[in-house]
Specification:
Layout: H1 2-13, E1 15-21, E2 29-30, E3 40-43, H2 56-60, E4 73-80, E5 83-90, E6 93-101, E7 114-122, E8 127-140, E9 145-157, E10 161-173
C-alpha cells in the first residue's frame, strides 16, 4: 500500500504544461518579401486574449530604457528597398527614432518574417534544465503587425519537481495607417 501511494504521489508531481494564446480573430501570417511592406503606423500596445501587456516598442528596442507604456504608436517607413526608419511616438512628440538596415540589423526569413530572438539557455532561475525561446515579427493577412513567440522548457523546478512546458503566443499590433 505504501508503494502504491508513493507511485501515485510521483505521478501527480510530474508536470507537463502546454499553453497557447492568440488574439480573437487571429489571422495567419502574410508572406513579406520587401521591407517596404512594413510601411505604416501601428498601435504600440498589442492585442492578446489575456491581460498581458505586450508593447511593439519593447520588441524593437528590448535593451533601451524606455517608458514603453508612454509610447502610443510605432511608425515604420522604408527609406529604401532595405532600410526602415522606425519612430516611437508619444503624445505630440517622437520618443525614439532609429534606422534599421536589412542584412545588418534584421533579416526577412524564407517565411517572410523578421527573426527577433532565437536563444537556448541552461539553468535559468529556478529551473535546472533547458529553456528555448523563439520570436518572430511579421504581418498578418489583414496587414496588421503580428508577433509569434514559442517558449519550451524541460527540467527540474527547484531541483525537485520535473516539468516540461510548451507555450505559444501570438500578438496583433493593429495597423492604423
Amino acid at each position: 500500500m505504501k508503494k502504491m501511494l508513493l507511485i501515485l504521489i510521483l505521478i501527480f508531481l510530474n508536470g507537463c504544461l502546454v499553453l497557447s494564446t492568440t488574439p480573437l480573430d487571429n489571422l495567419p501570417f502574410e508572406r513579406v518579401e520587401y521591407a517596404s511592406q512594413f510601411n505604416g503606423t501601428y498601435k504600440n500596445l498589442g492585442v492578446t486574449n489575456d491581460d498581458a501587456k505586450r508593447h511593439l516598442s519593447y520588441l524593437i528596442w528590448p535593451n533601451e530604457k524606455l517608458d514603453h507604456s508612454s509610447i502610443l504608436t510605432i511608425k515604420v517607413e522604408a527609406s529604401s528597398n532595405n532600410t526602415l526608419v522606425v519612430k516611437a511616438n508619444g503624445v505630440d512628440k517622437i520618443i525614439k527614432e532609429e534606422t534599421f538596415v536589412e542584412g545588418k540589423d534584421f533579416k526577412i526569413n524564407n517565411e517572410g518574417r523578421i527573426l527577433l530572438t532565437k536563444e537556448t539557455r541552461m539553468g535559468d532561475g529556478g529551473l535546472a534544465g533547458a529553456y528555448t525561446m523563439f520570436q518572430e515579427l511579421g504581418l498578418d493577412q489583414a496587414g496588421h503587425g503580428k508577433l509569434h513567440q514559442t517558449v519550451n522548457a524541460a527540467g527540474l523546478v527547484f531541483l525537485v519537481l520535473p516539468i516540461a512546458m510548451h507555450d505559444d503566443q501570438e500578438v496583433r499590433f493593429e495597423r492604423i495607417e
